[in-house]
Amino acid sequence: MTDTVTDVNTGEQVVFWVCAILAVAGALGMVLSRKAVHSALWVALTMINLAILYIANSAPFLGMVQVIVYTGAVMMLFLFVLMVVGVDASDSLIETIKGQRLAAILLGLGLGILLVWGIGSGLVASPTVGLDAANDAYGGNVEGIANLIFTRYLLVFELTSALLITAAMGAMVLSHRDRWKEVASQRDLSIARFRSGVHPGNLPNPGVYARHNAVDTPAILPDGGTSDLSVPQPVRARGDERTLDQVDIDEVRQITEGSGE
Amino acid sequence: MSPLLASVGAETETAFTMPSINYYAIAPILILFGAAVVSVLVEAFVPQRGRRPVQLVIVVGSIVAALAVTIDLRGTRLVTGEGAIAVDGPTLLMWGALLVIGLLGALLMAERSIDPLGDAFAPRASALPGSEDEQEFTRRGFLQTEVWPFLLFALTGMLVFVASNDLLVMFVALEVMSLPLYLLAGMARRRRLLSQEAALKYFLLGAFSSAFFLYGAAMLYGFSGSVSLVAISDTLSAKTGEGSLVAIGIALLMVGLLFKVAAVPFHQWTPDVYQGAPTPVTGFMAATVKIAAFGALLRVLYVSLGGLRWDWEPMLWIIAALTMLVGSVVAITQTDIKRMLAYSSIAQAGFILVGVVAASPQGLASALFYLVAYAFTTIGTFAVITMVRDASGEATHLSKWAGLGKKSPVVAAVFSLFMLSLAGIPLTSGFVGKFGVFAAAIDSGNTWLVIVGVVASVIAAFFYVRVIVLMYFSDPTPDTASVVIPSAFTTIALTASAVMTIALGVFPQWLLDIITQAGVFIR
Fold first, then answer.
1. B426 CA to centre of own chain
2. pLDDT at B4
């Protein structure tokens, strides 16, 4: 039985418009965000919304696989890789070819308009069939897919294993390092650390000074100066180190003399 | 009972019928696939030193076995795997060509005595270029023997690609064929950063074009309700007046396929990849990918979209003309011989497209002949390039080829033969090939395309002949490269390709007979 596009019921329309807008927003966010992690999260949003649309279109298997494989496995793996590689790595936005970005945006928009117009006019003219007949032919969605995989697409299904083997071996070839140097043991590392002449023990703790004992508070040396070593390097690098100034000294006086508060 | 449980009943078990697969008809694919898997296991279990000889035996043995089965299959004409794979005359012909060229490519990749440091591949692709690790691995004579399974997987993918009778099979085959090539392109022993850049560009652009292919296949599915080439063709002849989905589908599908054949404007990757990839891989890839991609393109156009030829022919006319002209003109300005040959391969793709757009059995036959002739010449050309070297490796800058004819007359003569064949001079295979495609084009009324083709041939002849002039009519300078005497591996590959270039030029009839017997694609 064939329906035309106008016969879609209200519930399905609501699902479509909510998910479609979110999916497109996710895709745009992926392209437009400058940070890789943000892009990955936007993709996850798109994937989940696509999954809902698949399920709404009576393709539950595809929808579940979309969630489990893409949103679950692939995107999380992607995030792990980003975390390992470095979250702060962002793309350089310098154009190596002059006017490339403008040309890309114009051509992309052109292609987009052409596709939307073409597919739109193509779909309005043709009847929608839906998946019910295809699903019922084998007694269900999963059974139908299984039937196709084990008959018509048996060979190509087996062939995808070639793809997986190549991908796995390629990753090994490009990343596996053969060890040819002796690996230093903990004892070797320890000896090397003491020999290096750098102070081997713990660094001084942050200062405990009046109300402040946070990591950004430097320890005070006997001569009244502060020890840079007592504040972790990243805090110092960002310039978040507290300085001891008159306000702190006033505060201490208030506490010791009991005059404040 | 829930509907999900209810469906797991006896009726679903009876609904399943075993697929009928003629295993002997697809034996060449299975042999290569099996050999590739064994070759992966060799990497895992055979000690480092023993891997190379074992891999060579597996690679050469499996290709020869597959070739023997292919020859035995001649005359076969069937569709198997429930309509997924078509084994017909053109398929078998292209299988044969792919396997022979694959064998020659494997011989070039096996060469170890040209470079004093080892073969053409990095000792360990994972070691950073210029690092202490890399020097140590080179000193220890490590070899990255994973190139052999990659070669076999790539060949497997190509065999399936030209035989696929279904867009989904074609897409998976496209990926199986491309992925190993992306990896191989990035594994050069020398100029490694260039090689890695080439691999990355090839991978990104290749993935992009595959996406276009898939999108196109989805559109055609949306139109016809099937991804089978035959079913799409049937729907096209039954339904009329719903043009836009089909038009978009064909256009996107063509982007994916024309990217692989390096047709303008989808050729941007070619110069960088041809230049950066290890030269034996460039030769293998330039020859085999051209055959495989044109094979698939021909099958899609002739089997599936034949009914719409008035729609796609104008598009391919323009692309063919552009490809011939841009390839020929830009090649003139190149100073690196590998880059020049990359643009030359773009121009050659244009000439083959002239045969493709003829859309007749004659056009198919001429394109097939051109592909075979071009593949042999190309792999020979790159075999010569591996041998012309100076202290830093291959001497690819054209200025270093000046006076080579006086220093090494034999190699220069063989290279000149290849250049003349690529230029399409009579008594070489290139002439017969060009004549065939131009004749087919005139027969189907594309005279203006032939005129463009002849003009492009004249422009192209300029830069091919320029190399010959450079080698013979200028004196050797201190910078002139020298020719390294290779081992039997390269010698066999080079001799075979030179002999085929002459044989197909002087006595082309036997191959033309084979192609005539092969006939047209099965429907």
1. 25
2. 47
B175 touching A, CB under 8 A? yes
Burial call B228-262: b when 16+ CB within 10 Å, e when fewer: bbbbbbbbbeeeeebbbbbbbbbbbbbbbbbbbbb
- Give how far A137 is from chain B: nearest CA, Å: 9
Interface contact B225-A129, CB threshold 8 A: yes
Stretch B176-199: mean pLDDT: 95
**Cβ–Cβ gap A178/B244 under 8 Å:** no
Average pLDDT over residues B26-30: 96
- What gap in Å lies between CA B516 and CA B361, rounded to an integer? 9
Q: Which of B107-111, B271-275, B287-291, B516-520 has the lowest average pLDDT?
A: B516-520
Q: Which residues have CB under 8 Å from B136's CB, separation 6+?
A: A180
Which residue ranges in chain A fall short of pLDDT 70? 1-8, 86-93, 126, 208-213, 246-247, 252, 259-261
Q: Which of A140, A151, A152 sits opposite B4 (nearest CB)?
A: A140
Q: What's this model's pTM, rounded to 2 decimal places?
A: 0.88
What is the domain partition of chain A in residue ranges?
Answer: 8-87, 128-172, 204-261
pLDDT at A2: 44
Interface of A with B (CB under 8 A): 114-115, 117-119, 121-123, 125-126, 129, 137-140, 143, 147, 150-156, 159-160, 162-163, 165-167, 169-170, 172-178, 180
CB contacts < 8 A (A, B)? 144
Q: Which residues of A touch B40 (CB under 8 A)?
A: 165, 169
CATH value of A8-87 in 3.90.280.10, 1.20.120.1200, 3.30.460.10, 2.40.160.20: 1.20.120.1200
Q: How many helices (H) and strands (E) does chain B have?
A: 22, 5
Q: Do B15 and A147 touch (CB under 8 A)?
A: yes
pLDDT in tens, A118-164: 888 887 776 777 788 888 888 888 888 888 898 889 999 999 999 99
